[in-house]
Amino acid sequence: MNACSALAPLLAPMLTVIPFVGAYADPPAQRNVELTLFAAVDPIPEGASVIDLWIPVAQDTDGQVVSSVTVSHPAGGVIDTEPRYGNKMWYKRFEAPFEDDLRDGKLSAEIKFEIQRTEIVAPESKSLATNPKADPKLTAYLEENRLIPVATEPINAIARELKLDADPPIVAARKMYDWLIDQFKYDFGAKGAGIGDVRWACDSKTGDCSDYTSMFIAVMRNQGIPADHEFGFPIRTKGTEGRILFYHCWPRFYVEGVGWIPLDISEADKHPELRDYNFGSQSADLFKFTHGRDITLAPKQAGPPLNKFIYPYAEIDGAPMEKVPYRVFFRKRKN
Fold this sequence. Notes:
Layout: H1 20-23, E1 30-41, E2 50-57, E3 64-73, E4 78-81, E5 88-95, E6 102-103, E7 106-118, E8 120-121, H2 123-126, H3 153-161, H4 169-183, E9 185-186, H5 198-204, E10 206-207, H6 209-222, E11 227-234, E12 241-244, E13 248-255, E14 259-262, H7 265-270, E15 281-282, E16 286-291, E17 313-316, E18 319-320, E19 326-333
Helix pairs in contact: 3-6, 4-6
């Protein structure tokens, strides 16, 4: 039997199935934060003549308003938008000699974002509303990605055994959400984790947020339900300022009459008390930057499409730099 076809109980007991007003009467939480993203091409390879640098730029989206984007340094550069998903990015080409572009001896860039983030709660997700599937015009969220196959036999098998074709989208999404929590074991250190490779995740039944998210997306798209992969930076401390060490990612799916519904499967697996909350709700402590997979940047990079674009990306004379050192800092503002 394929590793992905062994099923847990179809639907875990629901703790919150009553209407929104009864279960989530408190006003949504809100955060005002300054985020600073710093990137450096360091060291500069000997003999380099051209360095291209792209940095993701946060923008307005569901539950998020970006009131300002300030490039502290360097001078120049442009903010552009890639056409497939609408991700924004800052871009600059540096040409040798690089001395005039150095800051503290490094070729670097720093961008500050003022962001207001509001908690999201979709009441339809809590009541398992029977809204229909969306119009298939959202093709970018129904197609395969390089590492997210949609119609392989393991994915077909999950959909068949969960009987998802008989369910409205929100019910199908909840079944898959519960199946992943029950069947997978969170392990960000597993060899192969963090790439979002559905074939690997299907066999290993472990991984991190990228792997859980990719599995969910594959099965939703298999059922004709548009699904997307979002990326951002979480604040996981009550402190007023500090450094954010890791990015986070999560899926969302689209339903007619509701729009995009977010969920956070890996965090629910790590924190069982969040299981019901994280289906259809999203914390105000998640700050979104990009979404989608197989990203072609703007302007287009010389290398292949990016599996994910949450870190800064650079090319040295047209060749991808293996890793661009970066740091993210936050400072909370008063609401």
